[in-house]
Specification:
The complex is a heterodimer of chains A (946) and B (418).
Chain A lengths: L1 H14 L5 H38 L3 H17 L7 H5 L7 H14 L4 H14 L5 H13 L6 H12 L4 H17 L4 H12 L4 H14 L5 H4 L2 H7 L5 H18 L5 H12 L5 H14 L4 H10 L8 H14 L7 H9 L4 H17 L19 H14 L5 H12 L4 H17 L4 H11 L5 H17 L5 H10 L6 H13 L7 H12 L5 H17 L1 H16 L4 H14 L12 H5 L23 H5 L26 H12 L15 H8 L5 H8 L4 H6 L5 E4 L7 E7 L11 E9 L5 E10 L5 E3 L4 E4 L4 E9 L7 E6 L4 E6 L7 E3 L4 H10 L5 E7 L7 H11 L3 E3 L6 E8 L5 E8 L4 E8 L2 H16 L2
Antiparallel strand pairs in A: 1-2, 2-3, 3-7, 4-6, 4-8, 5-7, 8-9, 10-13, 11-15, 12-13, 13-14, 14-15
Chain B lengths: L1 E8 L4 E6 L9 H10 L9 E3 L4 E7 L2 E7 L5 H19 L4 H6 L1 H11 E2 L2 E2 L4 H7 L5 H10 L29 E14 L5 E15 L5 E6 L5 E6 L5 H7 L1 E4 L4 E10 L9 E9 L5 E10 L7 E9 L4 E8 L3 E5 L4 E7 L8 E8 L12 E8 L8 E7 L6 E15 L2
Parallel strand pairs in B: 8-23
Antiparallel strand pairs in B: 1-2, 1-5, 3-4, 4-5, 6-7, 8-9, 9-13, 10-12, 10-22, 11-13, 14-15, 15-20, 16-19, 16-21, 17-20, 18-19, 21-23
Classes of the chains: A alpha+beta (946), B alpha+beta (418).
Chain lengths: 946, 418
């Protein structure tokens, strides 16, 4: 089509010239047409591709879904946008296939933030998984749930974290610690609540949790040092067995902690050393007195010692970060004599890859400035190889320079000679600076170095020469001695050197010491005046300076020259030079306008100038904690935590004392067993404890109590039936309803919690609603709700109360009173509410069941309505009727539930076994046979009714 | 801690990104590219870069930059060490840590990264645990997977993470129970012009390959443990036992791992197994020079020195080299100016020699310095420090394992200045 169209347009163009425009326009239109077609095509193609991904995701085959998910993850990995697939993907969150599930999680974490509403669809899946009997599933559910950054679910996350923080499995608790940080970054307002959780987890004795919770502590509330006190010794003792990443975090935190709690182990011993050296002839008596005083001042806190002792073995870690962490701890906390044990390990790290070398060398550089002795024995380990990257070479050079002293300088200088010849010119230049520093620091070798540097002036490489000039300039400044020869030599070089800094340096030198080279100086000025216009700004300024200085000292010869230069400067392009010219002219050439200053011109220009200090760039880095990012960058990084100075007086050390009885009680409370005392010599010190905790399945009965927590959430979702407490007719307008909230332990271990909703149906306020005149059977107790001061008309309020029914179904009677009336009411619990669910494995269930046979077993055969025979319906109905926990079952036709009674904690095991022809065997095993039979009776209709 | 990770190849393409917290735009990498441009070569790209809102910490491994994005203060070594662990894991899983391997296995890579970090904090980095969570790809498995539609993700959840020995997976079973130890020592040395040793030290490692069923508890003892000056341990080793008895006692991970790495104290004189005679000179004012190098064995305790390779970074002015080698072959790359001479085995009767003419750029000044020679070599069945394994005992299991120890000495950073 296009061809013919084009042809026709050409024909047309042949007819009239004015219409030549037409074919061009047609072509453009055509191009557009095709281009848009192409675009459409591309779009369609894209659309199609995603469409086919959607289809795959909706297919019934797992393999298709998996393929689709893999392709989507591939898109995410490349940074392509795959957000429009969200609805299709999120449907698969409950997939049975574990790999699909994992990939969906990956997708969710990436896109949930962008698609908040849709992401909510997935939440219930995680909530369910949070109560899975398998600890790993609970943990991963918590992980994903907390990684979805959707603000609406903050309360759900908070609840889940709280639950998980008291989970029996340390692995789940570890994940809870991670989730704390995630929630904090999502909603910082939760801080207070999170700190409570952190406080609780800090008490945890598992090595698995320690690192993660300290990380959370550092992120959320690093200033709450008081939370650490009680856990300090435990953290020190656990440290060796914590995983390596946790070790790093804990060590950094403990370093900060120690700096606030212990007194300095340094200041005094140094004073003493100096003292005894300087005052050799002082009377012995006085000396002793001083010594005694010092001894009185410092004894190391045993806790301080504990930290140092327990971190030392970690110097042997294979992880460079751990070694560095210990090294910085020793640097910041140990007495100076002990700090040197870390050098060997740090030097070992230099055998590692270049990035590790880079960081370690930086830290060694800082250390070696302050305490040379630490690294002197390892001098040769810092020798440079020609194959090292430049950044490593310069760092090594830095350290070598720091370590230089009278004893080793000759060896070092010989080594430096090799470096100066290096093909890496940047490094050669750095070496020259290093030589300069050595020369200023060690007076014995100043002359040698200077001579060596002068030799380098005849080097063929300009960078080397330039650098030498600059360093020599600095050296000459520090050496007020007569170095006329060297200056003359340098003046000669001026013809050849083109590097501006070097030229400027030479000119400055000649100007400064012009009186020492009276013949050469004017000549140099003459030469440079000629080349003034072509010089670099830096050099121009120095020519002006030179002119000014010569004008002042030798005006006879140089007056005209200087004026010539000043004239050139006056019309220079650069502001700086024009300014400087004006300034100099006013100062040195007296006229009527120039004030009193010009009298002092000589003093101003030729004043004695302080010599520049040749210092290490690492000199001031030690105010940053070593091993930190801030130290590496030499600037405060975001979130850097300052290391405080040692306190003058140590804060009360007793805050770290842990009451042994208290701590064990706490733990028996959770585990329901007494802990074996941990043998201190053992390497895997956690082993016993860990086994106890992780293999809870085998010891379920002991651990029941804490398992209870797992089921809270589930029960909140199943809202139980509401019963009437007081009808509005009989209550004169005050109505009350109650239901069992199935929350354990709000009012104490033995209480069943009941939520009472009171409604005011009158048109007046009802005041002071409270409970009175309890008529209770023996043993039964009631925890009243707080009196309601005032209830507005048509308003209702829900309050909680706790009742200990003593595992019986007897009713609790009491009076519901208002300001001027009272009504008799009573609560009779269904037997299903006297229970608390328990999580256990099928194996444990069978074991426990085996122990509760004979008279402890009641059973009945019941008819099951056909619509009730699926697993889900059965579970839903049974759990609704009684507060039971679901036990995973390997067989499709057997359903097991477990609970314990609220008051006595006796086990209640319920089994529903579906038989043929819509019947089922219902078995209940329990010590509490009365309750068992009542429960049996109550459960019967639940399954048989339609 | 670690916010995001970008993998960048040498030509500057970001070929993989992973975020553990909110998404950080790829544009953050521009700061990295800027630094990369400034650096002379890849080796000189600074590992820590500060940008207005983030910090970039990177490592360079196998022609890939692993660039991590950090937002707040963190020990840089922590991140660097972790990134290397990631690269090690890729190496372990795919046999190589290359761009193609990562691209081909992008899903596994993603799954691994997901397991290794949670909210930027390391979660599972032990290869034994990871391999239980995510099975490494093999050809057989990928064929099976494509037919049956099953997956690489382990369907049983690992228990190792929960146990007190997290590095060992449970339920290990082998028909042949074997334990192999490779004692590998590297000599780092700088030899000066005259042939005397400026600096030398021995860095050693013991790499193990342990395929033992059940939960074996091993102890390895040395004839001369005092030689080991500074040691770093795999977490499985009981430190107390080493402190008191100088015995390595441990429950090993399954498979390959590094048991210890050590340094032999610098007080001991290090025997240098080879010597180099060299004559390299550039004539003033002429565009040529002479090159003559001979390598010979020194104290090698009766063992042959083999796998000898010499590499020299020649000065920039060198145009070409016309050499003859009495043994092996040489190559000279005129672009990078690297001379490589693959010598092979040294026989003391006939010493290998490389001799000839160096052509320089005409008019260029004579090079300041002679290039230094980097030597590689290998000596089988010898630990140059003299370290010897005494015995290996196994407790906790009944069977009799097959045990083997191999010694090898290599050149590390072995440099001869000329």
């Amino acid at each position: 089509v296009s061809h013919s169209l084009f042809k026709s347009s050409v024909d047309v163009s042949g007819l009239a010239e004015t219409e030549l425009i037409f074919p061009v326009a047609a072509l453009i239109v055509l191009c557009f047409f095709y281009f848009s077609l192409f675009l459409m095509d591309a779009l369609l193609c894209f659309y199609h591709r995603n469409e086919d991904l959607k289809q795959m995701l909706e297919s019934s085959k797992d393999s298709a879904k998996l393929d689709a998910m893999k392709r989507i993850v591939g898109m995410i990995a490349k940074g392509k946008n795959a957000s429009e697939l969200f609805p299709a993907v999120v449907k698969n969150v409950a997939s049975k296939n574990i790999e699909i599930k994992k990939l969906v999680y990956v997708y969710l974490m990436r896109y949930a933030e962008e698609q908040q509403d849709l992401a909510l669809l997935s939440i219930s899946t995680f909530q369910r998984a949070l109560k899975d009997p398998n600890q790993l599933i609970r943990a991963s559910a918590l992980r994903v749930l907390s990684s979805i950054r959707v603000p609406i679910i903050v309360p759900i996350m908070m609840l889940a974290i709280k639950e998980a923080s008291s989970d029996l499995s340390p692995y789940v608790r570890k994940n809870a610690a991670h989730a704390i940080q995630k929630l904090y970054s999502l909603d910082p307002e939760q801080k207070e609540m999170l700190i409570e959780v952190i406080e609780k987890l800090l008490k945890d004795r598992s090595t698995l949790v320690a690192g993660s919770v300290v990380m959370a502590f550092e992120e959320v509330c690093p200033d709450r040092i008081d939370l650490i006190h009680k856990n300090y010794r435990k953290l020190c003792n656990l440290l060796v067995d914590v995983e390596e990443w946790g070790q790093v975090v804990i060590i950094h935190m403990l370093t900060r902690y120690a700096r606030t709690q212990f007194v300095s182990p340094w200041k005094d011993d140094e004073v003493v050393e100096e003292y005894s050296e300087n005052n050799f002839y002082e009377s012995d008596e006085e000396q002793k007195e001083k010594d005694r005083k010092v001894k009185n001042i410092y004894t190391m806190d045993p806790d301080h010692r504990l930290l140092l002792r327990n971190t030392k073995p970690l110097l042997q870690s294979r992880n460079a970060a751990v070694v560095m962490a210990v090294a910085q701890l020793y640097w910041h906390l140990a007495p100076k004599s002990e700090a040197s044990i870390v050098s060997k390990s740090l030097v070992r790290l230099l055998h590692s890859n270049r990035e590790v070398q880079y960081i370690v060398l930086q830290n060694i550089a800082t250390m070696s400035i302050q305490r040379k002795g630490m690294f002197e024995p390892y001098l040769k380990s810092f020798y440079v190889r020609s194959t090292d990257p430049t950044m490593i070479k310069t760092l090594k050079l830095e350290i070598l320079t720091n370590l230089a002293n009278e004893a080793n300088i000759s060896t070092l200088l010989r080594e430096f000679q090799t470096y100066v010849k290096s093909q890496d010119k940047q490094f050669a230049a750095a070496t020259i600076q290093a030589i300069g520093r050595c020369a200023t620091n060690i007076t014995e070798v100043t002359d040698t170095c200077l001579n060596g540097l002068v030799c380098l002036l005849s080097n063929r490489d300009e960078i080397v020469v330039a650098e030498s000039v600059v360093v020599i300039k600095k050296l000459l400044q520090t050496q007020p001695a007569h170095h006329g020869e060297i200056i003359k030599h340098m003046a000669k070089l001026l013809d050849n050197i083109t590097v501006p800094v070097a030229r400027a340096s030479i000119l400055w030198l000649i100007g400064e010491y012009c009186e020492r080279v009276p013949k050469i100086a004017p000549d140099v000025l003459r030469k440079t005046a000629k080349s003034f216009t072509t010089e670099d700004d830096l050099v121009k300024l120095q020519i002006l300076n030179l002119g000014a200085k010569l004008y002042l000292t030798n005006s006879k010869q140089t007056k005209l020259l200087t004026q010539y230069v000043l004239n050139l400067g006056k019309y220079d392009q650069s502001y700086d030079i024009r300014d400087r010219t004006r300034f100099i002219r006013q100062l040195i050439v007296p006229n009527e306008k120039s004030g009193a200053l010009s009298k002092y011109a000589k003093k101003i220009f030729l004043a004695q100038k302080p010599a520049p200090l040749l210092e290490s760039p690492f000199k001031d880095r030690d105010h940053f904690q070593l091993g930190t990012l801030s130290h590496t960058l030499n600037s405060r990084a975001t979130g850097y935590l300052e290391l405080s100075n040692w306190p003058e007086v140590a804060p009360d050390p007793s805050v770290r004392n842990v009451d042994v009885a208290e701590s064990t009680k706490e733990w028996t409370g959770i585990l329901g067993m007494t802990k074996k005392e941990k043998p201190t010599e053992k390497f895997y010190s956690e082993s016993e404890e860990e086994e106890d905790e992780s293999t809870n399945t085998s010891s379920s009965s002991r651990c029941l109590e804490s398992n209870l927590h797992l089921h809270c959430l589930e029960n909140c979702i199943f809202r139980t039936k509401t019963h009437e407490l007081l009808h509005r007719m009989s209550g004169k307008g005050l109505a009350a309803h109650y239901h069992f909230s199935r929350q354990p332990g709000i009012f104490g271990d033995h209480m069943v919690s009941v939520q009472v909703t009171v409604t005011n149906t009158t048109d007046q306020k009802i005041e002071n609603i409270h409970i009175k005149e309890k008529k209770l059977p023996p043993g039964m107790r009631v925890h009243e709700f707080n009196p309601i001061e005032c209830l507005e008309p048509a308003e209702s309020i829900t309050v909680s109360m706790g009742i200990d029914f003593c595992d019986s179904t007897q009713m609790a009677s009491f009076q519901l009173c208002t300001k001027d009336d009272h009504f008799n009411v009573n609560i009779q619990p269904p037997v299903g509410e006297l229970l608390l669910p328990v999580t256990m494995s099928e194996k444990d269930f069978k074991k426990e069941q085996g122990m509760l046979t004979g008279m402890n077993e009641t059973s009945a055969t019941i008819a099951v309505a056909p619509q009730n025979s699926t697993r889900l319906v059965i579970i839903e109905r049974v759990v609704k009727a009684a507060n039971l926990g679901v036990v995973p079952s390997g067989q499709d036709n057997i359903h097991r539930f477990a609970a314990k009674t609220v008051h006595s904690g006796s086990l209640m095991l319920v089994t529903v076994e579906l038989k043929e022809s819509s019947t089922a065997q219902l078995v209940i095993n329990t010590e509490k046979t009365v309750i068992g039979s009542v429960l049996l009776r109550e459960l019967k209709p639940v399954l048989s009714q339609g | 801690m670690i916010h995001s990770l970008f993998l960048i190849n040498c030509s500057g393409d970001i070929f993989l990104e992973k975020h553990w917290k909110s998404v950080v735009s790829q544009s953050v990498c521009d700061y990295f590219f800027e630094a990369q441009e400034k650096a002379i070569d890849v080796e000189n790209v600074p590992p820590v870069i500060s940008t207005p809102h983030h910090y970039l910490i990177s490592i360079y491994r196998d022609k890939i930059f692993f660039v991590s994005v950090i937002q707040t203060e963190v020990p840089p070594l922590f991140v660097i060490e972790f990134l290397h662990r990631v690269a090690d894991t890729f190496q372990d899983y795919f046999g190589e840590c290359s761009e193609t391997a990562i691209k081909d296995n992008v899903v596994i890579v993603y799954e691994l990264l997901e397991e290794m970090l949670d909210n930027g904090f390391p979660l599972a980095t032990e290869s034994n645990i990871l391999k239980e969570l995510i099975k490494p790809p093999t050809i057989l498995r990928s064929v099976v997977n494509s037919i049956t539609g099953s997956s690489n993700v382990g369907d049983t959840l690992p228990t190792g993470q929960l146990s007190n020995i997290p590095w060992r997976r449970a339920g290990v079973k082998y028909t042949n129970n074997e334990a192999y130890f490779d004692v590998v020592e590297e000599i780092d040395a700088i030899i000066d012009k005259s042939g005397s040793t400026v600096f030398a030290e021995i860095q050693g490692v013991i790499d193990s390959c342990i395929k033992l069923s059940g939960m074996p508890d091993l102890s390895l003892s040395f004839m001369n443990p005092r030689l080991l000056d500074d040691v770093s341990f795999h977490p499985c080793i009981r430190f107390k036992r080493w402190e008191s008895e100088r015995v390595l006692s441990f429950i090993p991970p399954d498979g390959n791992f590094r048991l210890i790495s050590y340094r032999v104290s610098s007080q001991n004189l290090v025997a240098i197994p080879v010597y180099v005679k060299h004559m390299i000179s550039f004539k003033e004012n002429s565009s040529s020079g002479r090159f003559d190098v001979t390598i010979g064995p020194k104290q090698n305790m009766g063992k042959t020195v083999e796998g000898v390779v010499m590499t020299v970074h020649m000065p920039k002015a060198v145009l070409n080299m016309n050499l003859t080698a009495t043994q092996g072959s040489y190559t000279f790359d005129p672009v990078t100016k690297v001379l490589t001479w693959d010598v092979g085995k040294i026989t003391p009767q006939k010493l290998p020699n490389l001799k000839g003419i160096v052509n320089l750029q005409s008019g260029a000044p004579k090079p300041e310095e002679n290039p230094s020679l980097n030597i590689q070599f290998k000596i089988q069945q010898l630990a140059i420090s003299g370290l010897k394994v005494n015995r290996l005992d196994m407790y906790g299991e009944k069977y009799k394992p097959f045990k083997g120890v191999k010694y090898i000495t290599k050149a590390g950073k072995f440099q001869v200045r000329t």
